[in-house]
Amino acid sequence: MTNTQNPSIKFWLALVRIPGVGPRAVQHLLGHFSIEQLFQASRGSLSDIGLNDKLIDAIQHPPWELVEQDLEWLACPENAALTIADDDYPAQLKEIPDAPPLLFVKGDLKLLNQAQIAMVGSRNPSTVGLQTAVEFAEAIAAAGYVVTSGMALGIDAASHQGALNVGGHTIAVAGTGLDRVYPARHKQLATEIAATGALVSEFPPGTVAKAGHFPRRNRIISGLCQGLLVVEAAQQSGSLITARLALEQNREVFAIPGSIHNPLARGCNALIRQGAKLVETVDDIFEELGQYNQSFKCIVSQLDQTALDLEQQNLLKLIPYSPITVDNLVQESGYSVEMVSSMLLFLELQGYIAAAAGGSYYRIQ
Predict the structure, then answer these.
(1) β-pairing, 277-278 with 353-356?
(2) In this structure, is the dihedral angle defined by the CA atoms of residues 28, 33, 36 and 41, taken in order, positive or negative?
(3) Residue 358: left (phi > 0), alpha (psi -120 to 50), or beta?
(4) Which residues pair with 357 in a beta bridge?
(5) Edge-to-edge strands of the sheet including 324-325?
(6) Residues 214, 221: contact at Cβ < 8 Å?
């Protein structure tokens, strides 16, 4: 973990505070100097690698007062920063051509290197779209993946909430400094995410929301994940930018189809026409990612047969890794409501299933 005890961190903080120095410029600079050497380099040596006078002035007179503010933020125990030179910088993200040189993190650093599925979609989704996002996120988190999104209104927020509902982990990538929450109404959501997951940003504390920040944020969302799921998106949705970035980064892209009459489905349907994987259940994602193994398909054969009677085993076979309602289980099993409810309670207490929002259940082992 990079923190205030790292003697070089002040130079990394200074570097990302210099206007006009993006990830590719940082790569160029660090190809010629170490991070410490950069701020001690002569004007001539900086000019020799092609820097203009304005950039040389900025490097030789960095905003140390802002760096001090950043160091104060990092002094809080839940806050940290990762440089691209650190061993625990997320390996997936390091693969992309414009990886952020510095990541600010509030929460659990270890999650950044765990397997992630990103979820994005409309800021103004339908009721069905919201529920779909929650249910998919619940199932994805219950299967052990980290759910990653951008904490925007709509599908993003529903995805984070779905992961939280089942006690799973979620990462929110922000387009502001982590001392701010955008949109402001998500302050409580951000607090909950930071408590068990992580908030991440390439922008230093104090950075306000600007339109140009969000496409930059989107490349981090897609860069961190193994696969990206678009739940609901109009044809001009910003989610499609994230999907395009994911494809460029060689990530799997998934999309949930919708009615040809629904404007919010047109973006997803277009992605599917362009080669995104059509998704109807969460199992479609797991299969494509190569994580869908026999323990998911044949869970009953691996159970302690003395723990469950025949009826309980039969009911468990009907419960998928995505939420299913009690009514559906009654209909599919042919058992009475009372019998199904009793068995669900037993299966939950034994750790085979978990409850989801709306009186639904899903399998967890």
Answers:
(1) unpaired
(2) negative
(3) left
(4) none
(5) 324-325, 360-363, 353-356
(6) no
Query: In whole angstroms, what is the distance from residue 41 CA to residue 30 CA?
Result: 12
**Per the structure block, which two tokens stand in for 203?**
């922008």
Give every strand in the sheet of 252-255, ordered side by side: 79-83, 102-107, 198-201, 170-173, 146-149, 116-120, 227-230, 252-255, 277-278
Average pLDDT per run of 10 along the chain, which is 365 residues long? 68 92 89 92 93 92 95 96 94 94 97 96 94 95 95 97 96 97 97 98 96 93 97 89 92 94 92 94 90 40 55 90 88 89 84 81 82
Residue 136, both tokens: 């998919």
Complete DSSP assignment for 239-297: HHHHHHHHHHTT-EEEE----TT-GGGHHHHHHHHTTPEE-SSHHHHHHHHT---HHHH
List strand residue ranges (DSSP E) for the chain, in order: 79-83, 102-107, 116-120, 146-149, 170-173, 198-201, 227-230, 252-255, 277-278, 324-325, 353-356, 360-363
CA distance from start to end of the chain = 33
